[in-house]
Amino acid sequence: MRLRNFVTIKISLTLVLLASMLYPLAQPSEASAASASSAGSFKSLTGILQPIIDAAAEDGVGVSIGVEDLSGTYGNDRIELGSPDAYLAASTIKLAIVTALMQEIEAGRLSLEQKVTVTSDVVVGGTGSLKNDTFPEDVAIERLARLMITQSDNTATNVLIDLLGFGRVKELIDSLGFKVMQLGRKMISPANPPKEENYVNTSELLTLLDKIYNAEVVSPESRDQILTWMKAQEVNTKFGAALPGKPIAHKTGELGDVSHDVGYFLIPGKEIAITVLTKVLKPEDSGKAQELGNPIVQRVAKAVYNFLMDEPRAAASPATWPTLYLSVEPIVKAAEKAGIRVAVGIKDESGKSERELLLGSGQPFAPASTIKMALVSTLMKQVDEGTLSLDQTVTVEQDDVVGGTGSLQKDPSFPEDVTLERLARLMITQSDNTATNVLIDVVGLDNVQSLMDELGLKVMHLGRKMFAAAPTPEQDNYIDAADFIALLDKIYKGEFLSDQSRDQIIDWMKAQEVNTKFGAALPGKPIAHKTGENANVTHDAGYFLIPGSEIAIAVLTEVTTTGDFDKAQEIGNPIVQSIAKAVYGALSYEPGFTDVPAGYWAAPYIEAASAAELIAGTSETTFGPNAPVTRAELVSMLSRSLGLVPPNDGTAFADMPADSAYAADIAAAKAAGIVEGRPDGTFGAADAVSRAELAALLARAYEYANGPVPARSEELPFTDAGDIAQWAEQAVLKCRQLGIIDGYEDGTFRPDSPATRAEAAKSIVFGA
């Protein structure tokens, strides 16, 4: 085969199995495909959260996380990660107090309207506004409970503890079978641990939240009242800081060495209970829980919320663009498991098709400097309209100068008259923040938003200058991959700009000086791009201008394991670079198999699997598409696609010498439990794989990557179902239910027929 500027990429796939796969097999029905794709669980969420926990531990912060599905969308799944130990409760214990209070109200022994006399001797410090009142004062129980939850008011809490009694709260806790949760003291009172201290853990808090939400410990009316108070939370340093304006209800808790937030994310149809507990572990960090713990709680909240918004998602069809799908999707999945949220958008600009590929997260990102593409687009539109010209000068004052990237701030003196052309050029080529802010004043934020609206972009938003505060979500900046490639596509096609303005923007992008991402991956290649990096995000977007294979591309990343800029770039930049190399290599790949003509049904899948080096040809010029796939070939593809690592204890089977091309892959698959040998200890590398064996291998690989699939009890619908061996029945049922494999158009399954190399190639692409 021939390569043109081909960048060799060895790719580790994460999954190998999701939709229908084998030609000439019938495609699964829309109903079965929807059923398979809509089934949700928190397995992948575990992979997203564990890196945050691990990174926090390295920084000396212990983390415990619990998430429970309350909606049924995720199969009522529940995960508990991190330390199961008892944590100092701080104000999260107030959820037990408010639950006991509402039980007493339901029993008629108390009422929310009832008033309690609060005297000055019960007033304590810390959070809350009640301490500022004049005493003695008669205060309604409703106000006390509301202040306890919304403000974490310590005086109100202690009054309610006196009203209820420690024994009443203990009675509630004991009735739930809790062994850790304890109310041992009032707020801001000396503690004599362990008896006179307050404790919680993730498991019990999550259970309490579940029972409140499902009205198992209180009535539906009391549940609604508690949630109303939690929705009105005023302490927004954790969940509230991470998710302003989002549908959440929560209760914070913080002391010198702990920082917690617990409650509900109430996305319609995806409601969950969530607990995030943190504590400092190093003696030298005592008293720093808010400084160290709050950012971790915020990162967990964002990660969980983005997961809920993204999952379950309609998977991108591998058939849309097999070569790019197979090249990029594994990198995205591997990054997610490392705590990196990734979104990739790719649009064909060659004129050959309207293909578009969107992979990874569909949720908004902080754009950093990539939002400057919206500004330059608006500027050039105004130039086309004659309201501005690039030769026009604007006076830059000293007050306009801001830090960060760019050379304008280093000019010898201000005020200085600078042309719009120079400002725009510096904004794109150097990501100059001073130039950007001056252009925002010239162009106008409202005009940028008007253009975004005109272009139908729903997320991309420029709401503030560089380095400016964003008091509200509307005053911040946002992008997502879909909007970004839509804007790039419209620029490239000149839909709202003249050819001259389009070419000017692309010329500036070609002269990009910030080459830490696409530029580092593809030095000297025909690309035009705009980078963006800030806090824990790092992006690059633009065009790969390979003649005849031009594309628009956006790669957005958010490193969820850190808020440190340097660490985020160190972690995120290689991901952006890997995706750039994979895409460029796939676009440059020229298939050369003489037995796979362009119109052959499996040609795009063979090209994709070959370009990713998951399967080789039978010779330099042939692929052998109709030849049976051997056990060695198929298991090697599965092993590579799952990124399996072979053990260090020699060969796995007697007939697989260590120097065999497939030995390491097969040993790794055996160690993972995906493949078994023959009764005599051999593997049978050259044996053809029957369709029954194929189903068994695919089912094992799927369960390795995704967890167990429940056993199926229905009858197989194939006319030759009686020919399917008992050992393969469950595998065939599971694969069919998952949309992985189905029968032929004549109603048969043909369990003993061999699978071909072409079918194997397609299965890899569709399962990536």
TrEMBL record:
What keywords does the record list, in alphabetical order?
Hydrolase, Signal
Residue span, SLH domain: 589-652, 653-712, 715-768
**Classification via PANTHER family:** BETA-LACTAMASE, BETA-LACTAMASE-TYPE TRANSPEPTIDASE FOLD CONTAINING PROTEIN
Q: Which domain of life does the UniProt lineage start with?
A: Bacteria
Question: What range does the record give for the signal peptide?
Answer: 1-26
Q: Does the keyword Cytoplasm apply?
A: no
* Cited Pfam families: Beta-lactamase2, SLH
* Protein's recorded name: Serine hydrolase
A GO molecular function annotation here is: beta-lactamase activity
Q: Which GO terms describe its biological process?
A: beta-lactam antibiotic catabolic process; response to antibiotic
InterPro entries, A to Z: Beta-lactam/transpept-like (IPR012338), Beta-lactam_cat (IPR045155), Beta-lactam_class-A (IPR000871), SLH_dom (IPR001119)
Q: Does the keyword Cell membrane apply?
A: no
